[in-house]
Structure formats: C-alpha cells, structure tokens
From TrEMBL:
<feature type="binding site">
    <location>
        <position position="175"/>
    </location>
    <ligand>
        <name>substrate</name>
    </ligand>
</feature>
<feature type="binding site">
    <location>
        <position position="388"/>
    </location>
    <ligand>
        <name>substrate</name>
    </ligand>
</feature>
<dbReference type="GO" id="GO:0005829">
    <property type="term" value="C:cytosol"/>
</dbReference>
<dbReference type="InterPro" id="IPR036291">
    <property type="entry name" value="NAD(P)-bd_dom_sf"/>
</dbReference>
<protein>
    <recommendedName>
        <fullName>Glutamate dehydrogenase</fullName>
    </recommendedName>
</protein>
<feature type="binding site">
    <location>
        <position position="121"/>
    </location>
    <ligand>
        <name>substrate</name>
    </ligand>
</feature>
<keyword id="KW-0560">Oxidoreductase</keyword>
<feature type="active site" description="Proton donor">
    <location>
        <position position="136"/>
    </location>
</feature>
<keyword id="KW-0547">Nucleotide-binding</keyword>
<dbReference type="InterPro" id="IPR006095">
    <property type="entry name" value="Glu/Leu/Phe/Val/Trp_DH"/>
</dbReference>
<comment type="subunit">
    <text>Homohexamer.</text>
</comment>
<dbReference type="InterPro" id="IPR033524">
    <property type="entry name" value="Glu/Leu/Phe/Val_DH_AS"/>
</dbReference>
<feature type="binding site">
    <location>
        <position position="100"/>
    </location>
    <ligand>
        <name>substrate</name>
    </ligand>
</feature>
<keyword id="KW-0520">NAD</keyword>
<comment type="similarity">
    <text>Belongs to the Glu/Leu/Phe/Val dehydrogenases family.</text>
</comment>
<dbReference type="GO" id="GO:0006537">
    <property type="term" value="P:glutamate biosynthetic process"/>
</dbReference>
<dbReference type="GO" id="GO:0000166">
    <property type="term" value="F:nucleotide binding"/>
</dbReference>
Length: 456
C-alpha cells in the first residue's frame, strides 16, 4: 500500500469515526447531521494533506458548539392571554471573530435546525474574509397573524433573556426568517433599555438612520446574483436572456429577482409557503413588492394584478417550470432528488442556493452528475452576513457608507468567495466543484485558527 493510499485510508477512517460518534449521540437531529455529512463528505483530501488536523482531533472539536443557550419566553397577547415559547442561541465557533448569525422566528425552530444553521454559518462567515464566527438563534414563535403589539411584547421578552449572552465583541445576532427590520427594532430597543447604553454593533439588520447599513435588505439576493454572474463568466456566458425560477418571496427572493432582471434575465416564477405563481411574461416585481412588503399578503394575490399569470397550490411544482437558472430561496430541503431530475430534464444549467441547505443530498448528487453549475448556500448566499459585518464596521467607526460603496464592497466579497471556492476545489482535486471548494476553504481557515489557539 502506497503512502498516499495509507493517508487516504487514515483520513476516511477518522472522518467516518467522528461522524458515527456524532450520529450515535445526535441521531434525532436530522438537519444537523445532514449539514455535517455534507461538509465531511468533502474533507478526505484535506486530512490527507493536513495530518495535524487528525492529531489535534479538529473534527470532534468543530462539530460541538461552544455553547447552546435555551430559555423560556413568556409573553401576553392582546387579550392578555399568556403564551410560552422556547428560545435558542447556538454559539458554535468564534475562532475567526465574534459569533455572528441570524435569529429565526418560525414554528419549525428546534435545536437541530439551530445547530445546522449555526454549523453552516461557521464556514460561510469564514468564506467572507471578514472577522466573524458562527452562531444562530431563534424561537418557535410564529409572527404570522400576530399584531405589532404582540410581536413587540414577544421580542422584548426574548431579548430580556438573550441580552446577557450577546455584545458587539461577543455575539452579534441579525435577522432571518420571521425576523425583519421591525423585529430587529423591537429587540434593539429592549437591549438599549436593559443595558442603558447605545451599543449599535450588538445587532445588525437595523433600519438605516439608527445604525443600519444601506444594502442590507438587498444583500443576500444581490449577492446571490453576483455569485451566479461569476459562475457564468467562467462558462463564457451571462445572465442576459436567461429564464430564471426563484422560490420564495421574502427579502432574498425579491432582491435576487430585482438584480437578475437588472442584468437582463427573465424571472418567470416565485412562491411562498402556500404555493407559487408562474408568469410567462416575466414576474412584475413591483406587484410582488406591493403584495409582500406593503400589504403582507399571500403570493396568490399576484394573479389579481396579472391576468396572464397562474397560481398553483403547493410549492414543489415550481421546479417543473423549464428554466436556465434555478434559485431556491425559500427553506431547507425544498429541492429533492426527483425535483432535481425534472429541472435537469428541462434543461437547467445553473442552480444557486439563496436559502440555507435548500437542496437534499440526492439533489446535489444529480446536479454534479449531470454537469449543472452548482452554487452551494454557504458560498452563494453569504452576501447577507457579509453586509451585516460591513454594518458592524460602520457602527464601530460611527459612520455611514453610501449605497454604492456598500454594494461595491458586497460585489467584491462575492467575487472573492467565488474565486476562493474555485481555487480551493482545484487545489484539493475537485476542479469545478464549488461545494467542495467552499467547504474546504472555510474549514481550513477555521481549523488553522483552532490549532493556533491551542487545545481548550
């Protein structure tokens, strides 16, 4: 047996051993295990080249969060009825910088989802090149159907516990599903009241004018399209004239549609959790913004404005619409193996992830086996957290940057993420595989930092 084969065997044995231990311990945390398995599946070449990672048992250390904070959130509705929810903050790894990651308010929130999101955030944040570590948090509270006063009271109760665990140099939450500028405002107001000081850098996603950054609302969607733009450039192609399907109709989807249309693409579909709309003439973004951002209504209202459009109940059918580019921007595991096969049969050339882990492992295998250009979430949707870090920088220097300046910095960051992922894939024997490149680039940066800090 050659030395190279021995090293490969040793690396695989080590990775399998750590994963099996994790599976035995957290077998019920399916989303977390899925995220870990996806990263682990790309790391054999890394451990072949870096035996010191095995000696220092980096994998076992990196898959256990530094801490998981869980707490009860008790609040009153408008009828003075008392409700109880569960709050979470997973502070996973702060080797690169302060913990950084969003807060999600959604009934599906549980420890597994929080851990999967925080684990992904470690490597996503490392890829940005900015000094931010990985975390995530939230609650199983559902803001839908709640009054502003009820949401305010919930946010105040949530922050009354969370405040003691965060700070500008400790942990900097932001928004995620169910947490927009309104919720961030309520959280920020309560933090200020409790602390009796103006620590603007403790939360990002604030409204411009009281510490927020321009472009933050647009950042994840714009960044996604900037990443796709780089993928297409390397294929000697552009977005111009391409047919695009986007799932979701929140900030990520809306601003991905906006930037794709600006660059000449034709977006023909979008969705929400109830169903999807197909507009053969191209999505009218002003209508979508009116429905979702102004009126807060369901996407099915779109057909009342656009008679040539159709609405279909259920979400998976959106992936049966023929397109050149598919942008899943809704939620985890929304594209499974069968949906991926249909996309491929209909001629899709690019899939780039605006949501976190929206493709199942089976779907990813289909993309890679069929030569589809694939932009994984931790690289393609990193624009949001990158701009959050730019907001932190502005807060630290007590200044505001113009829209154009932040947008140009965002574009540069996305270009660098693409280039880093591409180069790392080539270095570790998987040219063109951006999933491998993104995983490895983020992992190596964090692993080297962990070794430099010593064992603790």
């Amino acid at each position: 047996m050659t030395t190279e084969v021995k090293n490969q065997s040793k690396a695989k044995e080590y990775i399998d051993s750590v994963y099996n231990q994790l599976k035995n311990k957290y077998g019920y945390q399916t989303e977390f295990l899925q995220a870990v398995e996806e990263v682990f599946s790309t790391l054999v070449p890394v451990f072949e080249q870096h035996p010191e990672y095995i000696e220092q048992n980096i994998l076992s250390r990196i898959v256990e969060p530094d801490r998981i904070i869980t707490f009860r959130v008790t609040w009153q509705d408008d009828q003075n009825r008392v409700h109880v929810n569960r709050g979470y903050r997973v502070q996973f790894n702060n080797v690169v910088g302060p913990y950084k990651g969003g807060l999600r308010f959604h009934p599906t929130v549980n420890e597994s989802i929080m851990k999967f999101l925080a684990f992904e955030q470690i490597f996503k944040n490392a890829l940005t090149g900015l000094p931010i570590g990985g975390a995530k948090g939230g609650s199983d509270f559902d803001p839908k159907g709640k009054s502003d006063a009820e949401i305010m009271r919930f946010c105040q109760a949530f922050m009354t516990e969370l405040y003691r665990h965060i700070g500008p140099d400790v942990d900097v939450p932001a928004g995620d599903i169910g947490v927009g500028a309104r919720e961030i405002g309520y959280l920020w107001g309560q933090y200020k009241r409790i602390k009796a000081m103006h620590e603007a850098g403790v939360l990002t996603g604030k409204q411009p004018g009281y510490g927020g950054s321009l472009v933050r609302k647009e950042a994840t969607g714009y960044g996604l399209i900037y990443f796709v733009e780089e993928m297409l450039k390397d294929a000697n192609d552009t977005l111009s004239g391409k047919t695009v399907v986007v799932s979701g109709s929140g900030n990520v989807a809306i601003y991905a549609i906006e930037k794709a249309q600006h660059l000449g693409a034709k977006v023909v579909a979008c969705s929400d959790s109830n169903g999807y709309v197909y507009d053969p003439d191209g999505i009218d973004l002003n209508v979508v913004k009116e429905i979702k951002e102004v009126k807060g209504e369901r996407i099915k209202k779109y057909v009342e404005y656009r008679p040539n459009a159709t609405y279909t109940e259920g979400c998976t059918g959106i992936w049966t619409i023929p397109c050149d580019i598919a942008l899943p921007c809704a939620t985890q595991n929304e594209i499974d193996g069968e949906s991926a096969k249909i996309l491929i049969a209909n001629g899709v050339k690019v899939v780039a992830e605006g949501a976190n882990m929206p493709s199942t492992p089976e779907a990813i295998n289909e993309y890679l086996a069929n030569g589809v250009l694939f932009g994984p979430a931790k690289a393609a949707n990193a624009g949001g957290v990158a701009t959050s870090a730019l907001e932190m920088a502005q807060n630290s220097s007590r200044t505001y940057w113009s829209f154009e300046k932040v947008d140009e910095k965002l574009r540069d960051i996305m270009r660098n993420i693409y280039r880093t992922s591409k180069e790392c894939a080539e270095k570790y024997g998987a040219p063109g595989n951006l999933m491998v490149g993104a995983n490895v680039a983020g992992f190596v940066k964090v692993a080297d930092g962990m070794i430099a800090e010593g064992v603790y």
